[in-house]
Amino acid sequence: MSNIHPSAIVEDGANIAKNVTIGPFSIIGAKVTIGEGTTIDSHCVIEGDTTIGKNNQIFSHAVLGTIPQDLKYNGESVQLIIGDNNKIREFTLFNPGTIGGGSVTKIGDNNLFMGYVHVAHDCIIGDNCIFANVATLAGHVEVEDNVVVGGLSAIHQFCKLGTQSMLGGGSIVVQDIPPFCNTEGNRATIRGLNLTGLRRRLKNREDINEIKKGYKELFESGKPLQDTAKELLENSDNIYVKQLAKFIIETKRGIPFTRK
Hints:
Layout: E1 3-4, E2 9-10, E3 15-16, E4 21-22, E5 27-28, E6 33-34, E7 39-40, E8 45-46, E9 49-52, E10 57-58, E11 63-64, E12 79-82, E13 87-88, E14 93-94, E15 104-107, E16 112-113, E17 118-119, E18 124-125, E19 130-131, E20 136-137, E21 142-143, E22 148-149, E23 154-155, E24 160-161, E25 166-167, E26 172-173, E27 181-185, E28 188-193, H1 195-201, H2 205-219, H3 225-235, H4 239-250
Parallel strand pairs: 1-4, 2-5, 3-6, 4-7, 5-8, 6-9, 7-10, 8-11, 9-12, 10-13, 11-14, 12-15, 13-16, 14-17, 15-18, 16-19, 17-20, 18-21, 19-22, 20-23, 21-24, 22-25, 23-26, 25-27
Antiparallel strand pairs: 27-28
């Protein structure tokens, strides 16, 4: 049995699972699906073809699924898909995809979106990420698992943030951020490895040592970046070093680092 406040508006056709709570004055559109155990506080607006998984917490004044902020959008059928166990705080705005970007904005599980975070059209976000207050993602941004984005940061369209990377507050990102790296500034550049995150998630200290060696080869040796990445991908036996090298080889927007 769901708990829906009498002042909430749930349009006919909405698919509301058991044990869902919908607070006062919230509006749920006809194409919305909400999974079990999800809580929606007061004054939220959830529209469009939006699917929300289980056990999410959606706080007051969140707006999810309204049409993309893209002038090319012309009423096409597009989606917003949100996984399980996410915390979506006050005044957040998530838009669905566009035809030009695959028609889907997709968010994984166990993420924290603090107040005023914007996730624009066609973004793909993994699991276990943290977006601090007023983090802003333009369209077509991809964020891998376990990424931390500092407050008041802006990420340019089509950029990609690699797994376990960390972006400092107030940063402007216009290029791809490799896995395991700390990045900050306007324009953001790599400042070192996210060693705190690595120590929390990798049990084998030798893996961290190998990542350190790979990082030094890539960014401190003075060798051409792409050539070095290809050498590491071919010669390293460490899965994390290979992951870092592969990301650099496949980058489409370039890697922001200052050669020493």
